[in-house]
Design brief:
The chain has 201 residues and is an alpha/beta fold. The chain has a single domain, classed as Nucleotidyltransferase, domain 5, CATH 3.30.420.40. Helix content is 29%, strand content 29%. The protein has 5 helices and 9 strands. A 5-stranded mixed β-sheet has the order 3-2-1-4-5, with helices on both faces. Strands 8-7-6-9 form a 4-stranded mixed β-sheet. Helix 1 packs across helix 2. The radius of gyration is 17 Å and the shape is globular.
């Protein structure tokens, strides 16, 4: 099985190519700007370094949010384009699940992304990445957690995703038509929020 994993939901590009449950290329790099112009060269670099062509991929796994609006949009667009043009099955994955795949001794893992103003994107998973509490946009103080929960993300336990664990969890998922895949923002963009404010005033 040959797979491509793409995650641009934060200020990092996280690209992996796997072959028969082994990561044979991995690039994890912080991007200050111009993510859209850098992601294709990084993917090309990856396939230049491995023993098969991108056309021979079996599946593409794309992290479609929540997270950075721009980052999510860039990754989803690239994944959809490759999947559609080469007729490769496309499988979406939550960014919070990817974060929650980080190894921990706690019973439950809470993937967290700062959403500003005391709010977070949060998803709760067990060690097998089964969903305990659905991904949501919530005020941090409203999180219902105890000592069984490990908070993972900026300001808490550092995220160190287990990409193979995530891929194996979803390897048999039904693929999605690239034309209908959309970013999962979980909240309105700032522009949409401002527009709604104007309409309501």
């Amino acid at each position: 099985m040959r797979c491509l994993f793409i995650d641009t939901s934060s200020f990092f590009i996280n690209i992996a190519i796997t072959y028969n449950n082994t990561i044979i290329y991995h690039k994890y790099t912080k991007i200050e700007r111009d993510m859209s112009s850098l992601i294709i060269p990084i993917i090309k670099e990856g396939f230049d370094s491995v023993s098969f062509d991108i056309k021979n991929l079996d599946k593409i796994f794309i992290v479609n949010g929540p997270g950075s609006f721009t980052g999510v949009r860039v990754g989803v667009t690239v994944a959809k384009t490759i999947a559609w043009s080469l007729n490769i099955p496309l499988i979406p994955i939550s960014s919070l699940e990817v974060i929650a795949s980080t190894n921990s001794g706690k019973k439950y893992h809470v993937g967290l992304i700062d959403a500003r103003r005391g709010n977070v994107f949060a998803g709760v998973y067990d060690k097998k990445l089964n969903v305990i509490k659905e991904d949501r946009f919530i005020n941090f103080n409203e999180l219902d957690i105890n000592d069984d929960y490990e908070l993972i993300g900026e300001g808490y336990k550092e995220s160190n995703p287990d990409i193979l664990k995530v891929i194996n969890k979803h390897i048999n998922d039904e693929d999605i038509n690239p034309h209908v895949l959309k970013p999962n923002y979980l909240k309105l963009t700032e522009a949409e929020e401002k527009l709604n404010d104007k309409r309501n005033n």
